[in-house]
Every structure is written in structure tokens, then in C-alpha cells.
Amino acid sequence: MQDDPEQGREREAVLFFGAMGAGLSHELSNIFNIINELAGLQQDISAAAAGGGAASLARIADLAARIKAQVDRGEAINRSLHRLSHSIDHVDIDFDLVETLVLFGALAARAARLAEVEIDIRQPDAPLTHRGNPFDVLLALHSCVRVALAAASSVRHIDVWAEEGSDGVRVIIESGDRLAGPEGDLSNAAGLAGGCRALGAAPKLETAPDGASRIVLGLGRAGADS
User: Fold this and answer.
1) I need a labelling partner for 145 at 20 to 30 A (CA). Which of 28, 47, 57, 190 fits?
2) Angle, CA 138 vertex, CA 29 and CA 22 arms, to 5°
């Protein structure tokens, strides 16, 4: 009996949401641990500051700045988690595709760091409005970048950007390392079929002029406001 395609997509969606939630939660736990350690150190310095003069005050100020930096980092992660959670609110809206790519970059940062791969989200000068489901775009990106991360060997750099062409909006995931597999249809690659199904177009594998591999997602026409 063949697997239900919709069930495959739903499973990929749940796995994606779980992976992102777990990763962001882990990052927040790291931040809380760092803040706790810094707060304890600040208490020790404050207790000894009575006779320490300007040097102790400078150390306290430095610790306050380091705590503030961790709080800012935690707030940024929480904003990403909030936006991810609300990306499933609407299934057919006009949204800024570039902002969605930037959000994905924030969500994928931990996985990329653990894989020792740099992900660069290229941003055009102007917004690129697209009509559809933001969550489906995030899910498809996750599936494609997961393939690119697994293939990274020597270059360890992935570029992601969106562009509008004659056949509609395309999202490009380019890896400096050549991806395994023949040029053409990637719809049967592990993890890609379910993750990209909702976009209505199979991911394609192309070769850039410099020999780099590109996974190309065709999203159709841009939104009405573009």
C-alpha cells in the first residue's frame, strides 16, 4: 500500500515545527544559563566592590553589558519563535517573501552552526511580495537546506535568495559543494517530496555557471501588490 502524499506532507510539517521549536528552546536555555552565571559573578564582584574603586565598577558595567546582550539575543529568538507560530495562521495571503527568508535564516542558524556551515540569506533592495502560505515556504526551505547541509563538505557555505523571473518567483538554495544526484527532478529525494508538496512544484536541481549546485523552488507568480 502506497503512502498517502498528504500524510507525508503533514509528517514533514510536524517534524519541521518540532525541530525548530526544540532548537530555539535549546538556544533560550543556553541564554538563561549564561545570564544566571553572569548574575552570580556580578554578585561576587559587587560584594567585593567596596574597596575596589573604579576597577570594580568597570567590571560591573562590563557584566551589565554582557547580560543586556544575552537578553537582546533571547528577545530576537523569541520573536522568531513567535513569527514561526503565526506563520500557520493564514493559508492564502500576500506576504513579503524576503522577510520569510530572513526568518528562515534565523530558524536555521543553530542547525547550520552545529553543522559548521554558513547560511547567507541574500536580500534584494526592494520587498518581493508573494501570495500563498508562509509556513509552506518555510517547510520547503527546511527540506531543501537539510539536503544541502548534509552534502556540504569542503566549501561549507549555502546561499539562499529569491528572484522573480519570466516563469514566476523562484527561491534558490545554492551550495558550493556539488549535490549528489542527476540534474533535474528532485521530487523523490529523501525528505523533499513531503516538505515541498504544498508549493505545487517539484524542486529542481540545477548547476550554476561556476559549477555550484542549486536547488530551485518555483513558487509561481508573485502577489498582487508586487
Assistant:
1) 28
2) 20
